[in-house]
């Protein structure tokens, strides 16, 4: 499979007041076409700086950044590459219709029925009824939906999203995660940063954790699953042994070793319990909290 993104020894040093600061240090990463890569890390870790380097907005102090084999500063490298920044940079006097229309021109996408095509994308993001309203009148979530619609409407070969779920309510987050899953199923390549680990877990093929400007871990969901020896079972019903913990709303949680999972499920069934879900105990959140233990986070 060919490579969409390549970071080789990427290092970025900036000037902060009287001193120099290394904000990205020797990052090496390659993302294949068709892959979904979730980039996570605490505030100030370097996620946005990496993404800006990827888009050619930050020049590396040393090392290389390649998009489809070319430096991102070359316009041909960015053809078909859609990017939504953390604070979307939409021109807020425009309407969602005009934003999407403009982006189609920019990427030279010429759908057969342009108006219908644009309205379909706005509809998919739940903003068709405000297609002709200026963006400055929008809530943060609606502006974010507009920025994402604008990016996805060009059917990009690579989609780069910095915190795509920020500002969205739970309904908006589900909508966006579903649309991104669909983009992935269609062979799209996605690189995104997120704080909302639960959502990231659902869509990424690999996760990278950045801490203090260094990429400290890259894992697939199955590698994470292998590190987990326990599972959480949640159900409604009786707590029939001392290991079963009550949760809110009458729900119970029972943490068992993976080899005891089936017998535990049988016991719940026999007690008349109603199963809610079964999850590996070591979630992405727990795994990364473990990695964060003892790490000194930067003051921003
Ligand atoms: N142009 C710059 N000049 C000086 N410092 C910078 C510059 N860009 C980024 N930084 C610093 O680099 C560090 C990483 O910032 P970055 O925005 O990449 O983090 P982040 O992981 O995206 O954080 P958040 O989740 O809060 O958005 C921060 O300490 C930030 O202050």
Describe the structure in your own words.
The protein is of the alpha/beta class and 300 residues long. It has 3 domains: 1-80 and 157-218, Rossmann fold (3-Layer(aba) Sandwich), CATH 3.40.50.300; 88-155, no CATH class; 229-281, no CATH class. The protein has 10 helices and 13 strands. Helix 3 (96-106) packs parallel to helix 5. The mean pLDDT is 89. Adenosine-5'-triphosphate (ATP) binds next to strand 1 and helix 1.
Quick take:
The chain is built from ten helices and 13 strands.
Structure keywords:
binds adenosine-5'-triphosphate, 29% strand, alpha/beta, 300 residues, six-stranded mixed beta sheet, four-stranded antiparallel beta sheet, 13 strands, Rossmann fold, 32% helix
Q: Calculate Rg over CA atoms.
A: 22 Å
Compute the separation of the termini in Å.
39 Å
CATH architecture level-2 label of the largest domain: 3-Layer(aba) Sandwich
Strand content: 25-35%
Count the domains: 3
Number of strand segments? 13
CATH homologous superfamily (4th level) name of the largest domain: P-loop containing nucleotide triphosphate hydrolases
Instruction: Please tell me the overall pLDDT.
Output: 89
Assigned CATH class of the largest domain = Alpha Beta
Low-confidence stretches: none
- DSSP helix count? 10
Order of helices and strands: EEEHEHEHHHEHEHEEHEEEHEH
**Major sheet strand order:** 5-6-7-3-8-9
Largest sheet: 6 strands, mixed
Helix/strand structural class: alpha/beta
Silhouette: globular
């Amino acid at each position: 499979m060919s490579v969409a993104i390549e970071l080789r020894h990427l290092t970025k040093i900036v000037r902060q007041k009287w001193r120099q600061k290394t904000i990205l240090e020797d990052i090496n990463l390659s993302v294949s076409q068709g892959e979904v890569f979730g980039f996570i890390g605490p505030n100030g870790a370097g996620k946005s700086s990496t993404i800006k380097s990827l888009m050619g907005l930050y020049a590396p102090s040393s090392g290389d950044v390649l998009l489809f084999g070319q430096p991102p500063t070359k316009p041909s490298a960015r053809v078909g590459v859609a990017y939504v920044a953390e604070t979307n940079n939409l021109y807020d006097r425009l309407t969602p219709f005009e934003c999407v229309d403009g982006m189609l021109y920019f990427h030279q996408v010429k759908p057969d029925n342009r108006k219908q095509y644009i309205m379909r994308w706005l509809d998919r993001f739940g903003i068709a009824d405000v297609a002709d309203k200026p963006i400055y009148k929008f809530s943060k979530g609606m502006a974010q939906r507009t920025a994402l619609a604008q990016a996805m409407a060009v059917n990009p070969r690579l989609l780069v999203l910095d915190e795509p779920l920020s500002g969205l309510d739970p309904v908006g987050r589900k909508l966006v995660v579903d649309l991104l899953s669909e983009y992935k199923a269609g062979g799209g390549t996605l690189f995104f940063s997120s704080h909302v680990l639960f959502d990231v877990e659902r869509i990424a093929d690999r996760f990278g954790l950045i801490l203090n400007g260094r990429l400290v871990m890259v894992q697939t969901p199955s590698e994470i699953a292998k590190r987990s020896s326990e599972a959480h079972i949640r159900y409604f019903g009786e707590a029939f042994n001392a290991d079963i913990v009550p949760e809110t709303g009458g729900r119970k949680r029972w943490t068992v070793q993976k080899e005891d999972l089936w017998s535990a499920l049988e016991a719940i069934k026999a007690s008349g319990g109603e199963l809610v879900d079964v999850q590996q105990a070591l979630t992405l959140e727990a795994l990364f909290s473990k990695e964060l233990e003892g790490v000194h986070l930067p003051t921003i």
